[in-house]
Design goal:
alpha+beta, Arc Repressor Mutant, subunit A, 2 domains, four-stranded antiparallel β-sheet, three-stranded antiparallel β-sheet, 16 helices, about 45% helix
Length: about 350
Amino acid sequence: MTTLRELALMRLVAQGIAGPGFGSAAEAVRRLTAAQAQDFPGALTSIALRSGPEGRTSILDALNAGAVVRSWPMRGTLHFVAAQDLPWMLALTGARTLSSARARHRALDIDDAAVEQAGAVARNVLAGNGLDRGHLLHEWGQAGIATANQRGQHLMWTLALTGVVCLGPVDDGQQRVVLSAEWIRDARELHGDEALAEWATRYFRSHGPATLDDFVWWTKLPVRQARAGLAMASEHLERIQVDGTDYFLDPATPGLLATHRREARGIFLLPGFDEFILGYRDRSAAVDRAFQPRLQPGNNGMFSPTVVDNGRVVGTWKRPRRGTTADVDATPFTRFSTRTERAIPKAYSMLA
C-alpha cells in the first residue's frame, strides 16, 4: 500500500535530489521543466544539488551559454527554464498572467504605449550583450521613462511575459537582462494541444507522484487546459491511488526508488524555494500540516530552507554568518534524532 511518505520518497528520486541525479544543470532544468528561482542564490543551489559534482559551475555555465534562462513562465514568479522551452510556455501563460496585473498597471500608468516605448529603448540598449537590471532602469530613466514605485520592474516583467527579454548570463553574481530574440536559439515550436501534452508529461515525470490539482496550481493553467494536457499525457504515465486520490508519475519512478531507497531515506538540506516543496499545491506528503506555517514565517511569501529526513521535512536551517566558523544553524520542528543531528553537517557540506 502506497503511503504519503512513499510519495515523498518517490518525489526525491524523480526530482534528482536522491539517486543518480542528472549529468548537468541544463539536463536538470530541462527535466524539471521549470524550477523556482525567485531567490537566485538558493535556486543555484537547488539545481547544483541535482547536477553532480560540478553542479554550481554547471548551472552558471548553462546560464552563460544560453542553455538555461530565468524568466516568469508561470505563477508570476521567476523560474529557471531551458531556453528553448520558454517561448512555448509563455504562449500558454503570458497573456493570462499579464491580465492578472491590469489594476496594478493602471495605477502605475502602464498602458500599451508605455510598454512600446520601454520595449523600443530596451531593444536598443540591450542589443549585443544586455545589461543588469539597474543599468536597464537607468537607461529608461535617461529616456524619460518613469521607473519609481516598481514601475520599472513591472515594465521589465511585461516585456519578459511578452517574450521580448529574459534573464541570462551572470556577471559578479548579477544576471544580465538580454533580448530573447538574440539569446534564445533553436526555440522549440509547440502549439495548442501539443504544448499542453508536453507540459503535463514533463511535470508528472519530474514531479510525480502528483495530482491534477498540483499541476493546475503549479502552472496556473485553466483547469480545462490542465485536464486536457493530462489526458493526452496519460498514456506515458502511471496512476496510483493514495487515500482515494489519484496521483500520476513516470512509470520508471517506483523502480528508481527501489534502487536508491537507502539514499532517499537519508538527510538532505534544501534551499527555501526548492521544487520539493514549491512543486505542489498539497505539501502534506513531505510536511505535516501542523508545521507547514513554519516554512513561511510571517506568511510573507519567503520560504525557509528545510531539513529533510526520510522524505519528511523535520525542521529548518540557516547558513552561518559570513566570517564566522559556526556550524549550520538547524532548528527542529520537534526534536532531531541523533542520526539527523550527526548527518546535518555532512549534508551542509554538500551545498558548498
